[in-house]
Amino acid sequence: MKQMEVTIMGQSYILGCPEGGEQSLLEAVGNVDREMSAIRDAGKVKARERIAVLAALNLAYALAERPLPAPAAPASSKREASADGASTDIDALIKRIDQTLGADGQLL
């Protein structure tokens, strides 16, 4: 396994990367850095941990919203049924995160 140094929101990290996966890792790091920087730059959240969690949720939601090829009709109907509750699930996750983190990172 190869190690790569990357920068996310101005902080360096050493990450393990399988041989041949460098470009994919750099794309992932770029996505995370852009998302975290956008949240930070919006000015509403200050704590790095909260920014990271919100960025992870945003990226996971975007990934879940990507259309998937339907190999069989039952699988696609299950996907459509779960998509209806996706925003409710995200709202519940954000609420749980806010309860767990408390006032950490909130503007005064």
TrEMBL record:
SUPFAM superfamilies: Cell division protein ZapA-like. Gene3D superfamilies: 1.20.5.50, Cell division protein ZapA protomer, N-terminal domain. InterPro entries: Cell_div_ZapA-like, Cell_div_ZapA-like_sf, Cell_div_ZapA_N. Its main location: cytoplasm. It is found in: Cytoplasm. One of its GO terms (biological process) is FtsZ-dependent cytokinesis. Keywords: Cell cycle, Cell division, Cytoplasm, Septation. Pfam families: ZapA (PF05164). Signal peptide: none annotated. It comes from the Bacteria. Homodimer. Interacts with FtsZ. Activator of cell division through the inhibition of FtsZ GTPase activity, therefore promoting FtsZ assembly into bundles of protofilaments necessary for the formation of the division Z ring. It is recruited early at mid-cell but it is not essential for cell division. This is Cell division protein ZapA. It comes from Piscinibacter terrae.
